[in-house]
Design brief:
Layout lengths: L2 H13 L3 E7 L2 E6 L4 H10 L7 E9 L3 H4 L6 E9 L4 E8 L7 E3 L8 H12 L2 E3 L28 E6 L4 E6 L21
């Protein structure tokens, strides 16, 4: 039995029905759980002797609104946790979808992995995913007056406002975007456009 098959077996044994999906890609496993099971699953992933995922390497938000060229029919927002077991030399991805697309909320995992603090703040800032129980959930990368969440697929590419220094007022001012929208879709290069000589 390979290490990956063994991990698969251990995950099924320990987590059982908490796992709603398991995939293998590029030699690594990804699992998905329901939001209601997230903290229980994370506790078991971290503390169970067969799993021991002591380290949270990364956490990122995801927006699936246009996934699969518009064929996606599931929930829109998810958080993906990248976990590492140093003691057992294994990696795992855990994905959980927020139940509500209009107001995405998931429980915080800061109490399990303190490093999640800034990762969850980044996910909140860029995707608008709220992390219930987070000790200090506020913007991390955008300005305090920023409107919207720039990594959402429906956020305008040119933004909503721009800032500039106004020499008359001697301060930075915000104003509506003055850039003309442009088409960023590449033109199709057709074979008949080339002349062979």
């Amino acid at each position: 039995m390979t290490r990956l098959e063994q991990l698969k077996q251990h995950l099924q044994e320990v987590l059982g029905d908490s796992i709603v999906r398991m995939d293998e890609a590029v030699g690594e496993l990804s699992i998905e759980c329901k939001p209601a099971c997230l903290l229980e699953v994370c506790n078991l992933l971290r503390d169970h002797k067969l799993l021991k995922f002591e380290q949270l390497i990364d956490l990122c938000g995801m927006d699936y609104v246009d996934h699969g060229e518009g064929t996606w029919s599931g929930s829109r927002y998810a958080t993906v946790y990248h976990l590492l077991s140093v003691s057992l030399n294994q990696r795992l991805r855990l994905r959980v979808f927020a139940a509500d697309d209009d107001f995405p909320v998931l429980p915080t995992v800061v109490d399990l992995w303190p490093v999640a603090n800034w990762f969850e703040r980044e996910s909140f800032d860029l995707f608008g995913i709220m992390y219930e129980g987070h000790p200090d959930l506020r913007r991390l990368l955008t300005d305090y007056g920023f409107v919207g969440h720039p990594f959402r697929k429906d956020f305008p590419m040119i933004g909503n406002v721009e800032m500039r220094y106004d020499p008359e007022q001697q301060r930075v001012v915000y104003q509506p975007v003055t850039i003309d929208p442009r088409n960023n879709v590449p033109r199709v290069i057709r074979e008949e456009g080339f002349h062979h000589g």
